[in-house]
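User: Predict the structure for this protein chain, please.
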Amino acid sequence: MQPLRRLAAGAVLIGAAFAAGGCVPLAATGIAVGTLAVLDRRTVGAQTEDTEIEIRAANRMPDAIKGSSGVSITSYNRRVLLTGQVPDAQSKADAERAVREVPGVREVFNELEVMPRVGFSTIANDSAITARVKAGFVEQKALNANVVKVVTENGVVYLMGLVTQAEGPAYAGVASRMPGVRRVVTLFEFITDEELARINAR
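Assistant: Here is the predicted structure, written as structure tokens:
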């Protein structure tokens, strides 16, 4: 679950998309979401678990630290990424501890920064960078844009997903070439070609 600052930026982008292309019927939106779930390399069960982990972790955060609204939580295959800003080092450690206590979490990547919260312009810019990175994946026909989770925080792009050793550098390369990207951090979980074949055969 993303904090209100992420939702606000997302609402701006969604509103722009609707203005450009008209309203999208709810039925069509549901079909699109269902299709994305199928294209995801995680099992449907794993996708559900990740959603539950994000919700449970977000619910714990207000009791764990002050200024929890500056924290974003992303779970992919039960590996959790923490991004955003916290007021001090103790808050950073407490946030990580709260997430590690959530049932099902396998690993935590604590990328929280000890600094004042970024402004709305930075949040909006991060959302735009994420959109550009995803669009860059789509343009590369050899890459599947739906298998990598893209999170951008203060110009730093984090990539999560189940990818092969050959795919990882290709995704990172596309992200690193996008305007506004300061750094790319890859948090991939690598699979073999044989494992990929089994996933594709599901």
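The helical segments are 4-21, 26-39, 44-64, 89-100, 120-139, 167-176, 193-200.
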